[in-house]
Amino acid sequence: MTFRDAARPLAGVRIVEISSFVAVPLGGMTLAQLGAEVIRVDPVGGAADYHRWPVTADGESIYWAGLNKGKLSAAVDVRSAAGQELITRLVVDCGILITNVAGRQWHSYEELVKLRPDLIHVEVSGRADGGTGVDYTVNAGVGFPLVTGSPESGGPVNHVLPAWDIACGLYVALAVTAALRHRDATGEGQRVGIPLENVALATAGNLSFLTEVMVNGVARERIGNSIYGQYGQTFVSGDGVSFMVVALTGRHFRDLAELTGTTKAVAALGDALGADFGDEGQRYRHRDALTGLFTVWFTDHTAEEIGTALSTTSVLWERYRTFAETASDPKVTDNPLFSALAQPRIGTHLAPGLPLQVDGAYRPAVPAPALGDHTAEVLRGRLGLSEDEIRRLTEAGTVS
Predict the structure, then answer these.
(1) In this structure, are 55 and 162 located in the same domain?
(2) With contact defined as beta carbons under 8 Å apart, do 122 and 102 qualify?
(3) 178 and 58 in a common domain
(4) 283, 238, 281, 225: which is closest to 257 by C-alpha?
(5) Which residue in 72, 26, 29, 105 sits closest to 382, CA to CA?
(6) Angle, to 10 degrees, between the axis of helix 135-142 and the axis of helix 196-206?
(7) What start-end ranges are recorded for coiled-coil regions in this protein (predicted)?
């Protein structure tokens, strides 16, 4: 098998995507990066996310371009009967639909499977009961904002990473690949539902946030930048640079004590507290006392000295960086995951490809389309429409 084949296992698979925002666009992009032909169908003028921030000085959405790399784009009047009929024909031709536009009977599984019995239909919804929800509301209802932040925080603390959207998007890609395997083996399609809230609840359960309450009767507490059940803490250098330092194993912890010159002090603290710091739970329980011992060394050294010293140990660490610092750091600029991408309307920049290294290499990013870039190509190539038919549809406003 050549590298090209290995890196594009879904080559020959065709998928229609009707979506907006994060989860399904990410799923579609991931499938495209794996070699599938993904046709994103949007309303004429764009869906709700077509101008989402961040945008360029000219108002072009950097966000939209980032989540739609490598796709084809068709713009169709989704409210008209003619437009819906075109999209239906396209889904039937491709055999796979991924969408988070729930509740539309015309592209529901029940309607489409009548026309394509082996249809794979993956639909993301907000909640399992059919209710609406987005990452930020789902997260609020699961519990994470009330254990995020410092112990002194009085109210909820939201985080900026749409974690459930991201997980949900990867589940979309996983669902399609699993359904394809099932269809290849049996000739049967599948209807897959992925409620965003259930992705969050499953994760909270798998990571024991919910189980802890069920079994022990206690909820997770706020611990700031500490790591639950382990020793990890933020330290600040003498010149004001913050570091995250983590000691997961006994070796990590011994190295941290030796580096900071506190080995004897740590042993004395353990004797005084009756604690065995060879046990990770004891290190966590007495984290504040241990941090008090280690802090002196960090405040007595510059960031450069700290980084140099930590690099000689087994301790896990990193200095806190802004996105601007990371964008210019060798972890991006010298990383083969990133390559120069000439993105129309946005500009040339380093863009990540699929973060899977296959046979020692990464597939580079492919530019995102503009809205409707491939409408005529899709209608001609997939539905067999003539140039006159495409012209009439364009003049009628059915496509753009």
Answers:
(1) yes
(2) no
(3) yes
(4) 283
(5) 72
(6) 40
(7) none
Examine the pLDDT at 46 and tell me if it is beyond 90.
Answer: yes
Could you tell me what percent of the chain has a pLDDT over 90?
96
Which residues lie closer than 8 Å to 89 by C-beta, 6 or more apart? 383
| Cis amide linkage into residue 54, ω under 30° from 0 | yes
State whether 390 and 285 are in the same domain.
Answer: no
Burial class (CB in 10 A: 0-12, 13-18, 19+), 244: middle
Taking only the tens place, the pLDDT of each residue in 312-365 is 999 999 999 999 999 999 999 999 999 999 999 999 999 999 999 999 999 999
How is the beta sheet containing 231-236 ordered, strand by strand?
231-236, 242-247, 316-319
Looking at this protein, which amino acid is placed at residue 120? I
Are residues 243 and 277 located together in one domain of the fold? yes
Per-residue pLDDT band for 3 (boundaries 50, 70, 90) equals very low
Q: What is the mean pLDDT of residues 295-315?
A: 98
CATH code assigned at 95: 3.40.50.10540
Do 120 and 182 lie in one domain? The reply is yes
Number of domains in the chain: 2
Query: How many other β-carbons are positioned within 10 Å of the β-carbon of residue 269?
Result: 17
Report CA-CA distances (Å) from 176 to 72, 125, 185, 216.
18, 16, 14, 38
Beta bridge partners, 191, equal 121
20 part of a folded domain = yes
**How far is CA 347 from each of CA 57, 60, 264, 279, 341, rounded to the nearest angstrom?**
11, 10, 57, 52, 8
Residue 278's domain comprises 231-319
Please write down the long-range contacts of 288-292, taking CB distance under 8 Å and 24 or more positions apart.
290/231, 290/266, 291/233, 291/235
Q: What is the pLDDT of residue 5?
A: 66
For residue range 184-208, what is the model confidence (pLDDT) as tens digits?
999 999 999 999 999 999 999 999 9
Question: Which pLDDT score is estimated for 102?
Answer: 87
pTM of the model: 0.94
